[in-house]
Design goal:
Mean pLDDT: 88
Distance between the termini: 39 Å
Radius of gyration: 25 Å
Order of helices and strands: HHHHHHHHHHHHHHHHHHHHH
Low-confidence stretches: 1-31
Shape: globular
Strand content: under 5%
Largest sheet: none
Number of strands: 0
Length: 422
């Protein structure tokens, strides 16, 4: 076994937060420019949207988008976003970029995502500037360029976008496209935290805990982690649990550590899931339980957590070597309310992703069918009839595929509703 690295690697995961917990999340709808539907109903927006009000069109798109898992209103959301974006409304352009980037109602297309982000960013729209920076940072359809990313983050940060300010801090902390400068990192994190970023508060905790750019101060680290954790930041909750688990500047208390790991794990935090597996494997504050340990490691690995993946492999090999039914005991159902809750969160997330992907495919199939049905446009009468006949035959195939996709989406939506209503 090579488990000795699991605990030390968990400490490294605090720094890895910069690339994991801070990764760009899918934005369901831009929030900088909104018009709300009265009482959550779209009726107040229909008239101005139909009359060509770009902001009302965008808000109406938001309404349908936010209800997409209930009514599967992807087509309506997309139609209103496109109408708004066609008039140059930056928030709608940014949202279409998000949908192309994240395969939500549209085929995943990084090139189009970048194009829409750039249209909105060039108008000074800060969320689009932030998203465009993320594309340069990750190298999605553009050459990875930290200097370009930093330039766009700064444009958004200059407009007080907390997430962009936090990215500025991370770039200075890590020396991405700029000379590493912890003083600058601290300055940007403080500014981001003052604008409400819990990720920035968590990073301030990490810098204090590690003594980067300042004297090491566990009390200050815990204070920052707690500020973020109280607002539901899962990584901060995991970091508190790790400090308490290892007695870093605080009394070691496995029961309290497990409580914090549980809070983070039910929000899908892979580091916390991995640490819970470790505690159950070695009986830290609880009776050793190989079934629960393996369940937590597997859940962690399912989130793409490298420590969880490694521990699944190592623990599995160890159990097989032990023989005597050790593997069979570990693979029996683990009855644990927190594991069930964490698994439910994972299932809900996965179902939403599958619904988004299937609905995106359905809309794509319908678009292909529409193109085929209109392929006779501009042709002579004789040629037109031929093309129309050919297009109609081909369109039927895509209509059938779209209908099948929508049936799958409806089935998945029902599964999602059952999970969410539990």
């Amino acid at each position: 076994m090579s488990f000795q690295c699991a605990a030390t690697l968990a400490a490294f995961s605090l720094f890895a937060l910069g690339g994991v917990a801070r990764a760009q999340a899918t934005a369901p709808a831009s929030t900088d420019a909104t018009v709300s539907a009265d009482n959550g109903e779209p009726n107040s927006l229909l008239a101005p949207a139909a009359a060509g009000d770009a902001q009302a069109q965008f808000a109406l798109g938001n309404y349908y988008f936010e209800n997409r898992y209930v009514e599967l209103e992807y087509a309506r959301a997309l139609a209103w976003y496109r109408k708004s974006a066609a008039q140059g409304f930056a928030a709608a352009q940014d949202q279409l970029g998000n949908m192309y980037q994240n395969h939500t109602g549209l085929p995943q297309d990084y090139q189009r995502a970048v194009s829409y982000y750039r249209l909105a960013a060039n108008q000074g729209y800060r969320l689009a500037q932030y998203h465009l920076a993320g594309m340069y940072k990750a190298g999605l359809r553009v050459h990875r360029d930290y200097k370009q990313a930093l330039a766009w983050y700064r444009k958004a940060a200059d407009q007080n976008l907390a997430d962009a300010e936090e990215e500025m801090g991370y770039f200075y902390q890590s020396g991405l496209g700029v000379k590493r400068d912890y003083a600058q990192a601290l300055s940007w994190y403080h500014r981001s935290a003052s604008h409400g970023s819990t990720n920035a508060e968590n990073q301030l905790g990490y810098l204090a805990e590690e003594g980067l750019g300042q004297a090491q101060n566990y009390a200050e680290a815990l204070s920052w982690y707690e500020k973020a954790a109280e607002q539901g930041n899962a990584q901060a909750q995991e970091n508190i649990g790790y400090m308490i688990q290892h007695g870093s500047g605080v009394p070691q208390d496995f029961a309290k550590a497990m409580d914090w790991f549980n809070k983070a794990a039910v929000q899908g935090n892979g580091d916390a899931m991995n640490q819970l597996g470790w505690m159950y494997q070695y009986g830290q504050g609880v009776r050793a339980d190989s079934a629960k340990a393996l369940s937590w490691y597997q859940l962690s690995a399912g989130q793409g957590n490298v420590h969880g993946e490694r521990n699944v492999e190592d623990f599995t090999s160890d159990l097989e070597e032990q023989g005597g039914g050790a593997w069979q005991n570990a693979t029996t159902a683990a009855h644990d309310a927190v594991i069930d809750q964490a698994q439910r969160w994972v299932n809900i997330r996965d179902l939403r992703g599958r619904i988004d992907a299937v609905e995106s495919d359905a809309l794509y199939q319908e678009d292909l069918a529409s193109q085929l049905e209109h392929m006779d446009k501009g042709k002579t009468d004789r040629v037109s009839k031929l093309f129309k006949a050919m297009g109609s035959v081909g369109a039927v195939k895509y209509h059938v595929l779209a209908a099948k996709d929508r049936e799958d989406a409806a089935r998945l939506r029902d599964q999602l509703a059952q999970l969410e209503n539990q």
